[in-house]
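queue> pop job 88
queue> type: inverse folding (structure -> sequence)
queue> payload:
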């Protein structure tokens, strides 16, 4: 019978990151994937996922800021660009709470007038909004590439990956 210190079930975003972290710490780890790494049946499949600091709760903003540093570390380790900055905008009743939470965490953001927002983003209709919250750190993470990179790095760290 084979033994391991930890068995991680599922090689999606969370499982692959967990297995990589354990492997890099020298923990004898097995990563199990029911299908194949990168399959289209789980919540981590597909090309992209949104990345942002615009949350109404400052705890979530702080978590996103910590996650940003982890993305930079993953990019450095993998030699790939995995987080693409596009900037983001929010308008409507929740935007003020997002701005307040970002301000509490010193996350970069600014308010644009409707005219300035329309000029900057001509394909978006801001009719009915007096102002629009812009935050430059938003973008997309390249989900499928990130999972593949995490699994590759996990293997390099000694994790046994079983598909």
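queue> result:
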């Amino acid at each position: 019978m084979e033994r391991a210190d930890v068995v991680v079930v599922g090689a999606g975003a969370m499982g692959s990151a967990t297995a990589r972290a354990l492997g890099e710490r020298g923990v004898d780890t097995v990563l199990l994937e029911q299908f194949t790494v990168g399959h289209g049946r789980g919540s981590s499949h597909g090309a992209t996922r949104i990345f942002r600091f615009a949350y109404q709760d400052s705890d979530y903003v702080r978590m996103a800021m910590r996650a940003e540093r982890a993305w930079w570390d993953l990019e450095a380790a993998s030699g790939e660009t995995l987080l693409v900055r596009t900037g983001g905008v929010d308008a409507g009743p929740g935007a003020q709470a997002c701005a307040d939470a970002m301000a509490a965490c010193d996350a970069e953001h600014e308010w644009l007038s409707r005219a300035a927002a329309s000029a900057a983003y001509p394909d978006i209709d801001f009719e009915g909004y007096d102002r629009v919250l812009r935050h430059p750190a938003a973008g997309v993470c390249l989900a499928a590439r990130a999972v593949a990179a995490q699994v590759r790095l996990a293997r390099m760290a000694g994790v046994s990956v079983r598909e």
